[in-house]
Design brief:
mainly alpha; two-stranded antiparallel sheet; 7 helices
């Protein structure tokens, strides 16, 4: 299989892991994600990545091949490390109930409220046990912020934009559906965090650029 296609698939899988984890958490708490809301999340996340890839593609011709490789490495490696730290942060918040969950996180999450991030069900603002289109849009934006930076790095990796967008849309849709189904099937409340896996995959992609 073409290396570009494999790279696009890995990238899409990586970016869909947060959506899967959020959907799983919703499913465990019997919070439903209607098809329309799931579609909104998948489309917004994909469009964000696609736009950043487009920006990166415009800038790529003005960057030398060697520099492009190191820039791609830097972007993917930094985001990967952030995802690893993100996993530690979530675990810490969940284990320390006395911490003020209104603490905010800047950088790539732009002060996204950590209690929503650590406890996805709080995004269900109207406590309807259903994620409305409006709630889905807010959730999608928070899930796609990292994807914007990763899309820039992907463009510098010379991946095919069409494959990246197609795989991202498919991966996000499947991740939301599968996460929700598995969460609903869980007999007891199960909390888990796979942000570390996204971080590991991004770091691996980054290292592949300079090997």
């Amino acid at each position: 299989m073409n290396a570009m296609i494999i790279g696009a698939m890995i990238l899409a899988l990586t970016l869909s892991l947060d959506a899967f984890a959020a959907a799983f958490a919703y499913g465990c708490k019997q919070i439903r994600i209607p098809l329309s809301s799931g579609g909104i999340i998948a489309v917004i996340c994909t469009v964000t990545t696609g736009l950043s890839f487009l920006v990166g593609s415009v800038l790529a011709p003005f960057v030398s091949t060697g520099l492009a490789g190191w820039l791609a490495f830097t972007i993917l490696f930094v985001i990967g490390c952030i995802k690893l730290m993100d996993s530690i942060t979530k675990s810490y918040i969940r284990k320390h109930a006395r911490i003020n969950k209104e603490v905010t996180l800047s950088l790539f999450n732009f002060k996204f409220i950590l209690n929503v991030y650590a406890d996805p069900e709080t995004a269900d603002a109207d406590v309807s046990h259903t994620i409305s289109p409006r709630e889905a849009a807010v959730l999608a934006i928070s899930l796609s912020l990292d994807g914007f930076a990763v899309g820039l790095g992907a463009a510098l990796m010379n991946l095919h934009g069409g494959w990246v967008v197609a795989f991202c849309l498919l991966a996000n849709g499947v991740a939301l559906w599968l996460g929700s189904k598995l969460g609903n099937a869980a007999v007891q409340r199960i909390r888990f965090n796979i942000s570390w896996l996204a971080g590991v995959l991004l770091i691996a992609l980054a290292i592949a650029q300079v090997i």
